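Risk register update: the risk of archive-format incompatibility is retired. Evidence:
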Amino acid sequence: MIRSLPFLFLRALRYFQGKSLRWRIMLSIFISIFILMVTLISVYRIEYHSVRLIGGAYKSNMELTAFSDSLNLTEKAVENYVNFHTFDSIDTYYSARTKVSEYMENMQIRPSQDLVLQKEYLVSQFAQNFLLFSGKAIYARRANDFNAVNYYYAKTISCYNMLMKQLSELSSLLLQQNATNYNQNLEQLNSLYKISFLLFIMVSSIIVSVMYFSVTKIVKPLKQISNVAHKISQRDFNVPLFYAKTHDEIGNICDAFDRMIISIREYIDAIWEKAVTEAELKEKEVEMQALYADAQLRALQNQINPHFLFNTLNTGAQLAMMEGADKTCFFIEQTADFFRYNIQQKEKSVSIDEELKLIDNFVYIMSVRFGNRLVFEKQIPEVQFSQQIPVMTLQPLVENCIKHGLKNSVGRVVLKIEELDKTIQISISDNGSGFPEKIREDIFAAIQKTDKDGLQNILVSLDSNAVKREEGSNGTGLINVFMRLKLFYHRDDVFDITQNDEGQGTKFIIRIPANV
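Archived output:
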């Protein structure tokens, strides 16, 4: 049983911790009030018992005095009836006699070694004789037997005198005994007062301990919450979590603080990841600018001086005009416009309409060069396309389709624009022999690896392979176009390479969001 007490205490503690804060406070107050009430009742009972002991010391003397008064009243009634023979005296006699008999019922009726009880026994015997002789005197007076009256009345007076003497001695003995008991009761009462005082101090200590324990259990987590809140206000989020085990109001606050701290940490991590992402995007933007420069330089083959080229073309156009060769003059002007667009375009993006104008110039140049061997078709709705697209995006794809389409007797290239759901799809297809699947896989793998290995290394490693596989073609041109599209729109599904709808040839697809 003793071993199980700590276990029961722990179970009770867990039970109280699972209750609400208001319930625990009310329980503490109830326990304190209960202890205080028990203490007050105990002190009251102690004082009541002490007062009864002190009062009981004088009760016997008061009863003895009342007994003496009843005897005196009985004797006077007998005397009046014997002398005057009145009905009032006889009524008084029997009334007083009844009271004397009632007092005699609680007296000692047997001899005793105790002096007080022995004296009480003598008083009882004399009282019985007194009532006996007084009754006979009354009866003789009714019979008018004066000799008997005188005899029994004398016996009555003699018994009365002896009774009063014994009664006086009994009263003295009781006073002595009560005085001794009073001193003992007084000492006992002083001891009880001391015990009551000590009990009050002990109970007060218990109440204070209970309240202190309860308040400490409530204030301690609040103090911890205050410290954590202060650290958070100082932007110190490296604080331990509470992991509250209780389900009261304090436990709910601790859980809320834990969730808040976790949310703040996740928010900081998200901001950090966003900053890293922005840095990566900035780096990719720098790479994309390098791609623009590379595309422009490749368009001029890194060998032609722009100013010399423009001056030469302008001179040729003027010469053709002077000689009346209007077709040659127009061709040279279209060629000059094409290269001027490539060299002087400084923006990283242009509208689709601007790119389409460049395609018209380029296709005209190619048509003059290849004549009837090149068939170019445009399937474009008669609307304006102001959506932005990286500069020099469509021309390399058209050039690739012309090159592969002309491997046949007649090269057919189709440029088509469709307005789909929230997307503008641009497709450029040819009727060539198709795009090698291996090269397609290498191109997409290279684009996916740029984030890890760096763009320039991929371009260099892929350049030689693309050239070999496509017999001199510039494979890095497609990488350049697709990579710029990916960086510009931040999407991987913006481009694709498939077969032509007719089952042969190659089809390049560009999907542009309609809201850019």
